[in-house]
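Worked example

This section walks through a single chain of length 186. The input is the sequence exactly as stored; nothing has been trimmed or padded.
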Amino acid sequence: MYAIFKAQGKQFRAVEDAVLRIPSLEAEPGDTVKFDDVLLAEQDGDVHVGAPCVVGASVAAEVVSHGRGDKIVVYKMKRRKGYRRKQGHRQGYTEIRILGIDLPDEPQEAAAKPKAKAAPKAKAAPKAEAAPEPAAAEPAPVDITPVARKLAEEHGLDLGAIEGTGKDGRILKSDVDKAIAAKEGD
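Given that input, the structure is written out below as tokens.
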């Protein structure tokens, strides 16, 4: 059993009796703290996924100690300018021991799935009814260059009868010229 919870803007994986270092909390050693922002939890193969948090889930922990992390050195320099700055930093932390993970009795996914399945079925039916009407009313668009379209309209040619020789079957001016020549030759 484990849980992913959020504390102080960061996420941590909690397992019972594990000791974690989290950003500093305002609590004394020996105090019990509770984290309600559980993002994901697993228990006996059942996964509880929050949206964004699992409702009713929490992680209980005991504050063990406070401390400061390893020192890091921040060094800035600008070449040929005589500018040099050296600064050290030690980030504070709180060490906690996970006492327990409380999860809701019913998995959240089971409650959310029927609602999600019912909504798409209702939406799918209107789309199926509405789709044939516009398709029957409008002819399929023809890919044609603007010059060729204008020339075909001037000579009263049917664009569906002209075969395009351009890229992806696009009708070019030369295709319309051939159709005009064939029309005049008949």
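What to look for: The two ends are 84 Å apart (CA to CA).
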